Description:
Elements: H1 4-12, H2 14-35, H3 45-50, H4 52-66, H5 75-88, H6 94-110, H7 116-146, E1 155-164, E2 169-176, E3 190-195, E4 204-209, E5 219-224, H8 233-242, E6 248-251, E7 268-273, H9 277-290, E8 296-302, H10 311-319, E9 324-330, H11 340-346, E10 352-356, H12 359-371, E11 379-382
Parallel strand pairs: 7-8, 7-10, 8-9, 10-11
Antiparallel strand pairs: 1-2, 1-6, 2-5, 3-4, 3-6
Helix pairs in contact: 1-7, 2-4, 2-6, 5-7, 6-7, 9-10
EC number: 1.14.12.17
Domain Globin: 1-138
Binding site for NADP(+): 274-279
Amino acid sequence: MLSQQTRDIVxxxxxxxxxxxxxxxxxxxxxxxxxxxxxxxxxxxxxxAQGRQQAALANAVYAAAVHIDNLENILPAVVQIAHKHVSLxxxxxxxxxxxxxxxxxxxxxLGDAATDEILTAWEEAYGVIADAFIGVEDSxxxxxxxxxxxxxxxxxxxxxxxxxxxxxxxxxxxKPADGSNVPDxxxxxxxxxxxxIPGEKYTMIRQYSLSQAPKPDEFxxxxxxxxxxxxxxxxxxxxxxQVNEGDTLEVSAPAGEFLLDATKTTPVAFxxxxxxITPMISMFETVANVxxxxxxxxxxxxxxxxxxxxxxxxxKHAAAMSNVKTKTFFSSGPDGVITGETLKNYVDITGDAYxxxxxxxxxxxxxxxxxxxxxxxxxxxxxxGPALQLDNH
Length: 393
């Protein structure tokens, strides 16, 4: 347990963290990778380049400082991040290294203002928070390992099929290279794919939503091809251009908490933009298979027809349902984007809504759903990449 004095000191530093957080975390990552370049095999270089990882860590550290008296308040965030950590293969021995460099960064940025008393308090607090993560992750690893067909860390999978879904989205059907089956997963979960691209020094890991309802013997991911000069594009361009049927990819077990409750029969709406359709199609297919009478709405926004993926899948699944409405909006066309008026006409606000897509799209959709009277607990959403602060009120 943390002493009251330690908690008081940590809380008193929260405003300083709010002000200098991203500077501290930028210094932290720079120094960490200089001393431990092998960790570049785990961290997403693109999120580093764009500052997203630094901002996400700064938000997490700030939240810990504010809630140091009631750390259970940040448990949902811990669980969400722990899913990512397990998917990346983060281990208990990584935590002391991170703690050491976080404290050094606080000292470097704050200078004399970071007294020994403040650094000692933060060292204690970090120890408690790290133990919480290690504990949560340990039970997640255990569950992943002990489930049927489960494993920990990365396992070789063969690309069984490669199918183009639209102008910029391609699906990869993945089967375990050892001929075994895959574990069951919840619609909405993701896997990590680890690649060593020729000419690159470090492996790269990316998370991709599983884009079909669970099948016993395969995973499907559907990857949007980003621009090659975009730091986010390196892995997607490699998968699109160089990974072919018969090739091997390293894959981690399914993770994540953006889940469809497949037992519910109350109304549900799936609202997606762009590649945000990938977890939705898995959920939509599951409703078609498990609760085909459930009142269901599927709204999708794409730039144009050439970039609209899964149009036939949506039609096929919808045909199996008795109470379903679907519509695709093309932002370059006359019916344009999904508006508050659209949502009012389609969405039953007594049920649940699932939202996924680019951040501005999600902010707009969540704001409009709130305006229609939906409560926080009825609206489920997922970011691709480090969780950002959502501006949806």
